[in-house]
Amino acid sequence: MTQNSYIALEDGQKSYRIGGETIRIFSDLDLSISQGDFVAIMGPSGSGKSTLLNILAGIDTLDAGTLRINNQRIDRMGEAARSSWRAHNMGIVFQFYNLLPMLTAAENVALPLLLKPLLAAERRSRVANVLDLVGLKGREKQHPSVMSGGQQQRVGIARAIVSDPNLLLCDEPTGDLDRKSADEVMEILTFLNRDLGKTIIMVTHDPQAARSANRVLHLDKGQFIDNERAA
Ligand code: ADP
Ligand code: MG
Questions:
Q1: How many CB atoms lie within 10 A of CB 55?
Q2: For 125, 150, 217, 222, which has the most beta carbons within 10 A of its beta carbon?
Q3: What are phi and psi of 171, to 5 degrees?
Q4: Rounded to an integer, what distance in angstroms lies between the CA atom of residue 230 and that of residue 150?
Q5: In this model, does residue 167 exceed pLDDT 50?
């Protein structure tokens, strides 16, 4: 059924215990995503969108069910294996950018490369390339505090792609941006998907942003209630 899926979640279960109470986020969630797809996930606040992204990222874990990405059983990996898998295979873009304020744009972008055995020159050239790709050439030495939200998010995207991962997970990437900056961010994500073949999963409240995806899923009450594929 999901043999050819790049991402296959089957019978995913997740609850949180808060105090003595169990809150069920989802109990038999299935999701199948092809390589090269651009999927938007929408749904009410609290419906479990970030939880799902964190599970796909291997940051959080399922209580039960199976998760395969690129034919690897993520749900069977321990924490160390999951972090290593994450470092090699995915980039993550956050709503509030998660940049380190004491570092320059270039230093923020270089962070994921610290784990890799690269020569300094190779590291610098990769950082320059991705900053150029997101339209921030010449801003290498700027700190986040002097940048607009849109520029900071583009630094965040550069950091997410500097290791050249196949998969990009974005949690409300335009959630804190004005329309113009949001459109610029969506243009970059569209380029990464269409021209560089990145598989993108993006949680969003922004219907305009969701239009850039070629598939929109609505998560509500622990189920995907709608599944439309654009022509
Ligand atoms: P969304 O991103 O769709 O707004 P979340 O995935 O953040 O939703 O949260 C879904 C539900 O799970 C919410 O009720 C939230 O309070 C709860 N939740 C999320 N993370 C945790 C956690 N680490 N511990 C306990 N409850 C959590
Ligand atoms: Mg969320």
A1: 24
A2: 217
A3: -105, 105
A4: 27
A5: yes
Closest CA to 89 of 198, 216, 226: 198
**For 36-88, what is each residue's pLDDT tens digit?**
999 999 999 999 999 999 999 999 999 999 999 999 999 999 999 999 999 99
10 Å Cβ neighbour count for 21?
8
| pLDDT at residue 1 in the model | 47
Closest CA to ligand 1's atom 18 = 16
Closest CA to 151 of 129, 135, 133: 135
Atom of ligand 1 nearest to the CA of 18: 25
Distance CA 228, CA 231 (A): 9
Cβ–ligand 1 distance for 14 under 6 Å, the answer no
118-130 confidence digits (pLDDT tens):
999 999 999 999 9
Q: How far, in Å, CA of 12 to CA of 9, rounded?
A: 6
